Fold this sequence. Notes:
Blueprint (H helix, E strand, L loop, with lengths): L2 H7 L4 H15 L4 E4 L2 E5 L1 H29 L3 E7 L1 H6 L1 H11 L3 E7 L5 H7 L4 E4 L9 E9 L1 E6 L12 H4 L3 E5 L4 H12 L5 E6 L2 H9 L5 E4 L11 E5 L7 E8 L6 H10 L5
Amino acid sequence: xxxxxxxxxxxxxxxxxxxxxxxxxEELDIAIFVRGRHRLLGLTPTGKRVLTLARRVVAATNSIxxxxxxxxxxxxxxxxxxxxxSLARFYLPEIIKKYSVHHRNVRILVxxxxxxxxxxxxxxxxxxxxxxxxVESGSRELTFRxxxxxxxxxxTPRDHPLTRFRRLSLKAIAQFPIVITQPGSTNRQAIFRAxxxxxxxxxxxxxxxxxGVVKACVEQGLGVAVLPAYAFDSVRDTGxxxxxxxxxxxxxTTAIVxxxxxxxxxxxxxxxxxxxxxxx
Length: 280
């Protein structure tokens, strides 16, 4: 490349480039260029060796820059989570709060979906992580990892007759109207399994699709409810009582849904690690 062309690419003057080349030769104390009258004719044998080494340095510099850029991408970006209304409201906020302290450059997008649609959202790539209460097995595309097992409790208003029982029974609960979640929910299935096993029929008065609405209905005296224990907050839910019922109903299982053979960014891997206890 002629000095004039080099000056154009570098957005500087030709005399300036010539001066820098001479300063380089003086600093290294070697002749890099073969010079003719007012022009460069080529490289000296030593100059050719310098050029080879310089190309290696440029390539290494570019590689380092690529590593830096890749590392930056691993620290920032979007993380899409698909989950149910109840898990998004009662389970994830505390974990997201702790996670965000160390990942301020990650934008978390929480999408609500019915249980049956969560695996499909992860499988299609519409979501990076699924958080669900329905664990499946035998999937070739997805893996389900249990991250939490929570007992269920019976929620009642504070002055409810069930609060006087030392140990609840399904027969006692069946005497009162029950507010329940919508068909298809694992919580609803657990309730029906328990009552059917004892040949009892619950008095269902209201069916809603959100655990928060269930609690509001119970607080208004419309009935009692069975929910995972994580849905009850003793500080906020001052109008409710949570009665132990782990001897009556199967526990609630929370699981993470991920695509098999798919690598997540490191910031998403860290979120998964926070969801799964170290002893799991």
